[in-house]
Design goal:
By secondary structure, the chain is an alpha/beta fold. It has helices at 33-49, 69-73, 77-100, 116-123, 150-158, 160-169, 175-181, 193-205, 209-222, 227-243, 245-255, and strands at residues 2-4, 8-12, 17-22, 53-58, 105-109, 112-114, 126-130, 134-136, 173-174, 186-188. The strands form two sheets. Strands 1-2-3-4-5-7-10 form a seven-stranded mixed beta sheet, sandwiched between helices. A three-stranded mixed beta sheet has the order 6-8-9.
């Protein structure tokens, strides 16, 4: 299946791998209202198709430079407030939709990653960055505050003190530092970024989708849960996984000394 808007493309192959592409490369994939709505439609399409994994990329030199300030500058007052609410409503609904799915998300980022672009990169489960990528929060530099989950993800990934350093100073950090502090999973050579991201997404596509979903939810919940209730949540999730088709296939494969075939088990819609 191939669909999308002029700003966001989505292609879902027969194996259940969804490739979501930001298509405003000439503008650094800056997020305007069309791109935000396109990302939401892509997220919803992934849910409808019950995909097994998502690969998020951006065309051009930069993954995403944040909000489209040229679009925003054409408005003022109440009109600007309403426009920004429309943009962030769509963008945030897209993030919620991806997060609620069982399918893990791989992001491949290059060039400049700023503002909401950091939010998209941070929201992914696995984020690969080209060696020459750079990251800057940018918001307070123009008198704005964060969106796209940046103020939620950054403290959890890099710690609150370091998050405030990045958010208040807007210092630009290279990919190597982003990997060292946990903002991205790892770095790769620029000419290998696409292939490595495809490899990572394909490996996840072949994996136990429902177990991935349960794991994603446990990790997210565990960040704010008390230990006792979280242990109960883990126990319930494990028991449900054990009696599922996915769990039975995994154990049978292990005992039979063969590779499991999770792809024959359809993911939850």
């Amino acid at each position: 299946m191939t669909a999308g808007t002029t700003s966001v493309g989505i292609e879902i192959d027969d194996g259940g791998l969804a490739r979501v592409t930001l298509r405003r490369g000439e503008a650094g994939n800056a997020i305007d209202l069309d791109l935000a709505r396109g990302l939401l439609e892509a997220a919803r399409a992934c849910t409808r198709a019950a995909v097994r994994a998502v690969l998020l990329t951006g065309e051009g030199k930069s993954f995403c430079v944040g909000g489209d300030l040229r679009e925003f500058s054409r408005l003022s007052g109440e009109a600007l407030e309403k426009h920004l609410m429309a943009v962030t409503d769509a963008l945030h609904d897209a993030l919620r939709t991806f997060a609620a799915s069982d399918a893990p998300v791989v992001a491949a980022v290059q060039g400049a990653v700023a503002g909401a672009g950091i939010g998209l990169a941070a929201a992914a489960d696995v984020t690969l960055a080209a060696d020459d990528a750079s990251f800057t929060a940018a918001y307070t530099g123009i008198g704005y505050s964060p969106d796209a989950g940046v103020s939620w993800f950054l403290p959890r990934l890099v710690g609150p003190k370091r998050a405030l350093d990045l958010l208040l100073t807007n210092r630009r950090i290279p990919a190597a530092e982003a990997a060292a502090i946990g903002l991205v999973s790892r770095t790769v050579a620029p000419d290998r970024l696409s292939a490595e991201a495809e490899r990572a997404a394909e490996a996840l596509r072949r994996g136990p989708t429902t177990a991935f979903g349960a794991t994603r939810r446990l990790v997210a919940a565990g960040l704010t849960a008390d230990l006792g209730p979280h242990l109960d949540r883990e126990a319930g999730a494990l028991a449900a996984a054990a009696v599922s088709d996915t769990g039975r296939e995994g154990v049978a494969a292990f005992l039979g000394k063969r590779a499991p075939d999770f792809t024959r088990i359809p993911p939850s819609p």
